[in-house]
Structures are given as C-alpha cells and as structure tokens.
Amino acid sequence: MVRGERNVLGGDLAECSTDPVTGFYRDGFCTAGPEDRGSHTICAVVTAEFLEHQRSIGNDLGTPRPDWRFPGLSPGDRWCVVATRWLESHQAGCAAPVVLAATHERALDVVPLQLLQAYAADVPDDPSSLL
After folding, report:
1. Over pLDDT 90: what percentage of the chain?
2. Which of 12, 57, 72, 76 is deepest in the core (most CB within 10 A)?
3. Is the pLDDT of residue 4 over 90?
4. Contacts of 31 (CB under 8 A, 6+ apart)
C-alpha cells in the first residue's frame, strides 16, 4: 500500500506487481505523480491480444528495454499501463483485464469506472489461459 494513494474503488491503492516491477516510479504501484505525464495508472493483466494491439499502435510492451528498466512483458504479467493506451485497446476490442484495487483513481480522468469494472479480473491460477 502506498500511503495516501487511492484506487478507483476509493480504497487504499494496492500493489500491482513486483515481478516484474511495474509503475512509473518502478515501485510496484500504479501511483500517479507530476512526472508521469502519460498517467500509468491502470493495473492491467496483459494478454497476448492486448500486447499485439499495443505493438501495432507503436507501444511495444513485449521487447525488453533495459535502459528504461523495462523487462518486456508476457501474457499474465501485471503492468501499470497508460490509461489512454488501455482505452485505445478497449475501443479496438482487445482491452486487458484490470485489477481495480491496484488501479489508481486518476485513471477515472480518462476511463469511466463502469468500463473498468466490466474488465475487472484477478490473475488466474493458470496464466496460460491468457495466451
């Protein structure tokens, strides 16, 4: 939990992922601060379809970028994604599931709560189902 940060449900912001370590600040949380102009506020459970769509619009989340401390993602990973990018994937019919407790309230500036709730999910015991 990050002190004072709230999720889209109004509760304390939960951790999104530490394996891989996510967040704009690489602290495991989808915290939002003034440096994060992209609003990396949605905790998504990435799927192969979501990753492919993101790559097709110029946001390659599958290729490691060590210079940005970015490991490259695989289906089943949780990752703090940019709210507008997630919305683009929704509009294309391939949005990733969302962990609401770990999605920062600032995501609501871009995506309505009802839409996020429609994609609410936990990571399944077998992430291969996301392939």
Report:
1. 78
2. 76
3. no
4. 2, 5, 13, 23, 24, 25, 104
